[in-house]
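>> received
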Amino acid sequence: MRDLTRRTLLRGMIGGAAVTLALPPLERFLNTHGTAYADTGASGFPLRFGLFTWGNGVVPERWVPPLTGSGDDWELSDELAPLAPHKDQLTVISGLNVPFSGEGEPHFETACRFMVGKPLLMNGDDWTFSGPTFDQVYAKVLGEGARFASIEFGVNPKSHVGLTYTGPFSPNPAEMDPFALFERIFGGSFSLPGDGPQEVDPSLGIQRSVLDVVMEQITSVKSVVSAADKIRLDQHFEGIRSIEKQLAALQETPPNLAACKYPDTPEFAYELEEGMKPYKTMNAAFANIIAHAMVCDQTRVFTNSFTGAVQNSSLFPGFEESHHSLTHFEPDPQPLVHECTVFCIVALEQQIAALAALPEGDGSLLDHMVMMGTSDCAEGKIHSGVDFPIVLAGSADGRLKTNTHWRSTTGDLATRVPLTVGRVLGLDLPSFGEEEHEATKSIDEVLV
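>> returned
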């Protein structure tokens, strides 16, 4: 395979269906500094953006770090504690506000004003986001050259639609099936079991592995690359194999969703049964899949809609009430709401860890992107937009100051964050948002 390029796809057949497998970035495709694609003349690896959202906000006094500064001058808060393994890659931004009077649809109104920079569009009781969300603004630029402009997914059973829109009445549905996402990106033929016990497909052993059908081509590729590239290939293919084994294990022992009992009306809570959906296991699979998709340059923008806002399916193991219900009815200081938030941040840590685990150049995939974690509101109890929760991970090739907590003391607009991130990612953005939400100035304090 002497005519190897960074766009080479390994091809094979599984069960009569064609499959393709992309290669990771190899040093033979880079310049002598190991930073740029030799055939494009780019200044470095592609910059990427990832968004992780959860529903129902935070407990503000347990979210905001007690100290500001960089390095050892600040420490993580209770609710950010699960991110401790990545503290040196974090940028926490607090003290920013989303102006909102509280009228209208509270959860999505606040989210729309932050993510679009405008209020919701209302048509009677119907509503929609009033424009493209900032992830889609980024995707229009960053997504050029990638196979998928953006990819959306999430484990919440009711999060078919997260907080990402391409425009009014155009939400981006979240893929809730790790098998389907894997198949879409890597060409496998996988499917998750539906409700209730499922029989294992007897042909699964034939259909499971994309790697097996391209193994001869893998051997050929490894025969013409350097020792360092052989290591990259082995790490890449080992990661793909790990994904396949993890997903196969889920199919062979499917969760007994038939045991999950739903109330007649979904306004309060679902009863917890032993066979409920395995949130963390599935989120880890999603995180691994999307990290490999990005390092293969299949996409440069993704949204992980971990849980929704008002859906009562936002129920975590060991809880008898939904996250949403707890935010409104649990007395202060709301310890269970705090536990729900921590549960979500543990899932965010899974996503960050997957990105940080894949080597790229002199660092990791996370070094060449910005990952944002945020919610639909600040304090879920009152649907507040005050002190909006925002945490970033990754430095976008050293452009963003990390291991930092910066806090606004003047209640600036939260839309300064998507403006800042967009500019860090190389977009030519004169402003973000309109009227009372319009931000025109980056947060220079977090820029290098």
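>> The CA atoms of residues 401 and 446 lie 5 Å apart.
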